[in-house]
Amino acid sequence: ISCSLVGSEMCIRDSCKTNGTLYISKKVCAISAIALDKANITKFVVNNDNPSFKAIDGVLYTKNGTRLVRFPNNYSKSYTIPTGVKTISQYAFRNSEQLEEVIIPDTVTKIGEGAFYGCSSLSKISIPQKIRAIRPYTFFNCSSLKNIKLPSKLQILGSCSFQDCKSLKTINIPKNIESITSVSYTHLRAHETAAN
Q: Does the pLDDT at position 149 exceed 70?
């Protein structure tokens, strides 16, 4: 089953419950961060005449390829983000429950709020050194994540960024950190913090 977004609709705001391939017409220019929460997407296909988006190997990007907009939540267990991507959009990988590993290139300088929210099988990820802020809910309920190394120049650790990461045992807090919200790692089963 596929869902083709056509006609006069310019923005996908409401929940789309498609299964399989999601076709995006040339007229769609905006997609709400939560519009695809109830979808079960295996890949995106974008009309070649769409001025805002394109699909790279089934993953949704902005037309210039510098921002990862949305990862199909039923795509694969491992994914390597292409070099040249600068931004991972908010909730881009949300509820990709079978995803186990993400390789992020050094070109990425911003990871949006809730980017890996609900990726319950995610166990391997490295954060590029250029990242200065971990936004709220970035790794919320990543219950298989066992360890993570934060960038040495990280300045901000947002609220609930590691909440419900039940397998996470160690977080190394960089010495240059400027702000840690009190609930950044609430509900960790066990954690140790140390300055790098």
A: yes
